[in-house]
């Protein structure tokens, strides 16, 4: 199974990548890197993680690879046609608790942060009482953002990029 992962990685890194590349994507560096393809997240309970990432966040499972024993080695979830979250089951659940904005986290851009929070709430995700108020504050980089956590405490930043944000102004 690890040979398949290595082969997939080599094809991804050294292949022409046409099926993975964003259209009209110009490399932003001299190495030719075009965009972030996936982020791997260690999870202790695959069922709970799939409920969170698929049922609540709306990502779609696109494939999974199994170990020789038949147990799941990884699950690939589609964010869009170019970006994925890779779930790696078998991790120990963190005792550190919820991740805060200053720690390691996944960052997703959303079109409308308030609408995203309403959708999460409707899908059963428990938001804090002041979630909508906190999400309406413009941050130092000029974005709107709100943090949630997956079942393992991994931090998820939901950001709405505003036209005057540092991220929007940095686009080439």
Description:
This protein is an alpha/beta fold and 172 residues long. It folds into 2 domains: 2-89, Signal recognition particle alu RNA binding heterodimer, srp9/1 (2-Layer Sandwich); 105-169, 2,3-Dihydroxybiphenyl 1,2-Dioxygenase, domain 1. It has 5 helices and 7 strands, in the order αβαββββααββα. The protein has helices at 2-14, 46-56, 113-122, 131-134, 166-169; strands at residues 38-43, 60-66, 72-78, 84-89, 105-109, 144-149, 155-160. The longest helix is centred in the first third of the chain and has 13 residues, at 2-14. Residues 1-22 have low confidence and may be disordered.
Instruction: Point out poorly predicted stretches.
Output: 1-22
By secondary-structure content and strand pairing, the structural class works out as alpha/beta
Main sheet: which strands, in order across? 1-4-3-2
Net shape? globular
Summarize this structure briefly.
It contains 5 helices and 7 strands; from the N terminus they run αβαββββααββα. The protein is of the alpha/beta class and 172 residues long.
Topology of this protein?
Layout: H1 2-14, E1 38-43, H2 46-56, E2 60-66, E3 72-78, E4 84-89, E5 105-109, H3 113-122, H4 131-134, E6 144-149, E7 155-160, H5 166-169
Parallel strand pairs: 1-4, 5-7
Antiparallel strand pairs: 2-3, 3-4, 6-7
List keywords for this structure.
2 domains, alpha/beta, 172 residues, Signal recognition particle alu RNA binding heterodimer, srp9/1, three-stranded mixed β-sheet, single chain, four-stranded mixed β-sheet, 2,3-Dihydroxybiphenyl 1,2-Dioxygenase, domain 1, disordered N terminus
């Amino acid at each position: 199974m690890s040979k398949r992962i290595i082969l997939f990685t080599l094809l991804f890194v050294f292949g022409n990548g046409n099926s993975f590349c964003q259209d009209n994507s110009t490399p932003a560096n001299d190495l030719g890197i075009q965009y972030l393809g996936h982020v791997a997240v260690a999870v202790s309970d695959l069922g709970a993680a799939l409920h969170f990432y698929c049922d609540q966040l709306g990502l779609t499972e696109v494939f999974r690879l199994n170990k020789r024993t038949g147990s799941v080695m990884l699950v690939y979830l589609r964010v869009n046609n170019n970006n994925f979250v890779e779930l790696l089951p078998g991790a120990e659940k963190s005792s550190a608790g919820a991740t805060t904005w200053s720690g390691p986290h996944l960052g997703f851009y959303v079109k409308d942060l308030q609408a995203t929070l309403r959708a999460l709430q409707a899908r059963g995700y428990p938001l804090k009482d002041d979630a909508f108020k906190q999400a309406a504050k413009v941050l130092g980089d000029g974005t709107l953002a709100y943090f949630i956590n997956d079942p393992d405490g991994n931090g998820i930043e939901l950001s709405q990029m505003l036209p005057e944000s540092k991220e929007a102004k940095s686009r080439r």
